[in-house]
Structure formats: C-alpha cells, structure tokens
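This entry is passed on directly below:
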Amino acid sequence: MPSPKTRKAQEIIAAESGERLDAYLAGRFEGYSRNFWKKMIENGNVEVLGQSQPADFHIAQDMKITIRWPEFSWSDEDLRRWILHEDGQILVLNKPAGLIVHPLGESWLRSPRAALMEPEPNLAGLLLKWRPALAAVERLGLAHRLDKETSGVMVVSLSRKAQASLKAQFESRKIQKIYRAVVWGEVKRDSGVIDAPIGREAHGRLLRVIAMGRQAITEYKVLKRGGPTTAMEIYPQTGRTNQIRVHLTSIGHPVVGDREYSLGEFPEPAKSQRLLLHAWKIEFAHPQSGKTVKFCAPLPKDFEIEKTG
C-alpha cells in the first residue's frame, strides 16, 4: 500500500460517551460511512488520547480524538495531459489503462474528498484535485465508466445541466460508442452480432452468458487478422458491466491480456501485458448546443498487429 504524501491533523473533542469510535466519527462527519472510518482507524489515521484504538473502542466525553487526513502521492498525476477536449460543459479525457474510475463503496459519493484518501489511484480523486468545482456536480461529473484495465475516451460533465443531459442520453442509449480490441484466435466471420444475456451464476463472482441474465447486445467487425490474433471494432448496443469481454470470450475469442475472462487454450498474459481493449470513439448530443459531437482517443501502439492471409 502506498504511503500517504501528507497527513493533515485535525483534533476534535468527544461531546458524548458510550459510542463506538467508528460510529461516533461517522455521525460527526457527514458523508463518511462507518466502513470508511474503519479503514481510517485500521490504517493508523485516528488516535484517541494520543494512542491508536480499535474501531469498536467506546469513547468517553471530553476525550481528544486526532484525525490525520491522508493524501497520496498519486494525486500529483497531471490530469491535463489526458485532455482531448474541454469547454464550459464537458471534459473529454483519454483514460490510461490501469486507472480505476472511482473507488469502491459510496463514501466518495457523499463526500468527494474521500476519493483523494484512497491508496489506489482513481480518476474521481484526480478530477476533484484538478477541477475542484466538480464537487458540486453529481458523481464528480462521471456520467459513465470504463473498466480499470480499459483505456480510452471518457466524457465528464462540468455542470449539473451537462450531467443531467449525458445521464439521460446514456439511459436512452442515444450515445454511440466504438471500441477497438485485439482478441485471441482467428475470428472467421467478417462481422456479427452477439445477442446473449449476461449475469452471475449463483455464488459466482465473474459475469457469464447465462439464460437468466440481463439482455446484452454487442456488434463487431473484423479489421485485421494476424496469426494468433484478430483486431476488431466493437459496437456495444447495451452497457452491461464487462459486456465486451464476456461476449468475446463466449464466442471463443477473449481479449488479449484479459486475466479474468481468458480461456485456457490461449497463452496466459504476461505481467506487463495490458488488456487490449480501448474505447476509441464516442458520439453524443452536446449538452449546451444539442449538436452532435464526436471525440476519438488515439489507438495505443500495442494494438497494432501484422496482417496475414
């Protein structure tokens, strides 16, 4: 776990007795959950009378509680180098592979500052640091997300009006997204549609194509065949979690570098191998003008394959 860059101390005096430490802090600081405070306590960021105490420690009135708010060095990452476009309503980014969009849990939704106190780098925290006005916008302006290992174009709302507009467009499936992927194996058909429901089996962690799942539709087109791999263009018609990865695996062609959904007949990804799935292009109605706008994130060099046949 990375070490915090700074630890800004805040001291408070308990106003009452009898509550657990984590419960008292959750009640005292609106927007921060008990789970958030449990992690803060476990990581040594909370002391009572100068000493670390467990989350279930029962405080007494007038006890001094010291909180050291962490901020990690990853927050120094310059978000500006990922910007593809920015105006008064939207910010368009080229998200790098390996960056999660937002932390798990809901503390960051209730109190955006919590995103900066996560040890794992996340886009929500970087948005708060570089565009602090986003604290007033729902979900810090995040109208959609990409998987951690997926790179590519993302749109962030810079106003409540823009957030409402983009949210409505995503929900009504009016936003067009095009992905690029390199998959294992030679895809025989030049184009096709995968119409297969996605869900989790009982007690299962990973998503699968299952009969009782939610409707999911993915269209695709082959761009180039190159020996053991195929370069493809992907057009998701629905927005299920991990949809593209699950659907491509279901037809026997997992995405190169996919550690979760790969099939045993293909090589295991090297540690340095990234997931070769990239959100290449997005098209939607601009929240201010209503005009159709298109943005494209350049394709990384490791997506190039040698053509065969």
